Protein backbone atom coordinates (compact mmCIF):
# COMPACT_ATOMS: atom_id res chain seq x y z
CA UNK A 1 0.00 0.00 0.00
CA UNK A 2 1.32 3.45 -0.92
CA UNK A 3 1.40 6.06 1.86
CA UNK A 4 0.59 9.48 0.39
CA UNK A 5 0.91 11.21 3.78
CA UNK A 6 4.68 10.75 3.73
CA UNK A 7 5.04 12.91 0.65
CA UNK A 8 2.69 15.70 1.65
CA UNK A 9 4.25 18.95 2.77
CA UNK A 10 2.50 20.86 5.51
CA UNK A 11 1.07 24.17 4.37
CA UNK A 12 3.00 27.00 6.03
CA UNK A 13 1.78 30.57 5.58
CA UNK A 14 4.40 33.24 6.29
CA UNK A 15 3.20 36.75 7.13
CA UNK A 16 5.80 39.50 7.48
CA UNK A 17 4.31 42.60 9.08
CA UNK A 18 5.56 45.89 7.54
CA UNK A 19 8.41 44.27 5.58
CA UNK A 20 8.93 41.52 3.02
CA UNK A 21 10.56 38.23 4.00
CA UNK A 22 13.21 36.84 1.64
CA UNK A 23 13.11 33.34 0.16
CA UNK A 24 15.86 32.01 2.44
CA UNK A 25 13.84 32.90 5.53
CA UNK A 26 10.66 31.38 4.10
CA UNK A 27 12.56 28.23 3.11
CA UNK A 28 14.07 27.97 6.59
CA UNK A 29 10.63 28.31 8.19
CA UNK A 30 9.13 25.66 5.89
CA UNK A 31 11.96 23.21 6.58
CA UNK A 32 11.87 23.77 10.34
CA UNK A 33 8.10 23.46 10.68
CA UNK A 34 7.96 20.38 8.45
CA UNK A 35 9.84 18.60 11.24
CA UNK A 36 6.82 19.08 13.52
CA UNK A 37 5.05 16.26 11.71
CA UNK A 38 7.50 13.83 13.33
CA UNK A 39 5.94 14.66 16.69
CA UNK A 40 2.26 14.91 15.69
CA UNK A 41 1.17 13.80 12.24
CA UNK A 42 -2.29 15.40 12.23
CA UNK A 43 -1.10 19.00 11.76
CA UNK A 44 -3.45 20.74 9.32
CA UNK A 45 -1.52 23.94 8.61
CA UNK A 46 0.55 26.60 10.29
CA UNK A 47 0.92 30.36 10.17
CA UNK A 48 4.08 32.27 11.02
CA UNK A 49 3.96 36.00 11.75
CA UNK A 50 7.17 38.05 11.73
CA UNK A 51 7.24 41.43 13.45
CA UNK A 52 9.97 43.90 14.36
CA UNK A 53 9.59 45.52 17.78
CA UNK A 54 10.36 49.24 17.82
CA UNK A 55 12.69 49.13 20.81
CA UNK A 56 16.36 49.98 21.03
CA UNK A 57 17.31 46.50 22.26
CA UNK A 58 19.02 43.94 20.05
CA UNK A 59 16.34 41.32 20.66
CA UNK A 60 13.64 43.05 18.65
CA UNK A 61 12.64 40.30 16.16
CA UNK A 62 9.39 38.54 17.03
CA UNK A 63 8.20 35.26 15.52
CA UNK A 64 4.73 33.99 16.32
CA UNK A 65 3.92 30.44 15.22
CA UNK A 66 0.33 29.24 15.06
CA UNK A 67 -0.33 25.55 14.36
CA UNK A 68 -3.79 24.15 13.64
CA UNK A 69 -4.57 20.57 14.57
CA UNK A 70 -8.03 18.97 14.58
CA UNK A 71 -9.85 20.41 17.57
CA UNK A 72 -7.11 22.78 18.75
CA UNK A 73 -4.92 25.69 17.79
CA UNK A 74 -1.52 26.19 19.40
CA UNK A 75 0.25 29.56 19.45
CA UNK A 76 3.86 30.18 20.48
CA UNK A 77 5.55 33.58 20.46
CA UNK A 78 9.30 34.14 20.78
CA UNK A 79 11.50 37.25 20.65
CA UNK A 80 15.20 37.02 19.71
CA UNK A 81 18.05 38.74 17.86
CA UNK A 82 17.21 37.04 14.54
CA UNK A 83 14.06 35.65 13.00
CA UNK A 84 15.75 32.28 12.45
CA UNK A 85 16.59 31.96 16.14
CA UNK A 86 13.06 32.98 17.12
CA UNK A 87 11.51 30.42 14.75
CA UNK A 88 13.84 27.71 16.03
CA UNK A 89 12.92 28.39 19.68
CA UNK A 90 9.22 28.61 18.82
CA UNK A 91 9.39 25.31 16.93
CA UNK A 92 11.05 23.63 19.93
CA UNK A 93 8.25 24.87 22.19
CA UNK A 94 5.67 23.76 19.65
CA UNK A 95 7.24 20.27 19.57
CA UNK A 96 6.73 19.97 23.32
CA UNK A 97 3.10 21.13 23.03
CA UNK A 98 2.35 18.64 20.25
CA UNK A 99 3.93 15.76 22.18
CA UNK A 100 1.78 16.67 25.20
CA UNK A 101 -1.31 16.73 22.98
CA UNK A 102 -0.45 13.34 21.50
CA UNK A 103 0.09 11.81 24.95
CA UNK A 104 -3.21 13.25 26.20
CA UNK A 105 -5.08 11.73 23.25
CA UNK A 106 -3.40 8.35 23.78
CA UNK A 107 -4.29 8.41 27.49
CA UNK A 108 -7.98 8.94 26.67
CA UNK A 109 -8.03 6.05 24.18
TrEMBL record:
Domain of life assignment = Bacteria
Q: Name one Pfam family in it.
A: Ribosomal_S30AE
Q: Which NCBIfam families does the record cross-reference, listed alphabetically? A: yfiA (TIGR00741)
Q: What is this protein called?
A: Ribosome-associated translation inhibitor RaiA
Annotated source species: Flavobacterium suaedae
Amino acid sequence: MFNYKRFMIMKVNVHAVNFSADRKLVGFVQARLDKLEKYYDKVVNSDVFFKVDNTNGKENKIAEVKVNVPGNEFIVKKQCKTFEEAVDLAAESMERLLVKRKQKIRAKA
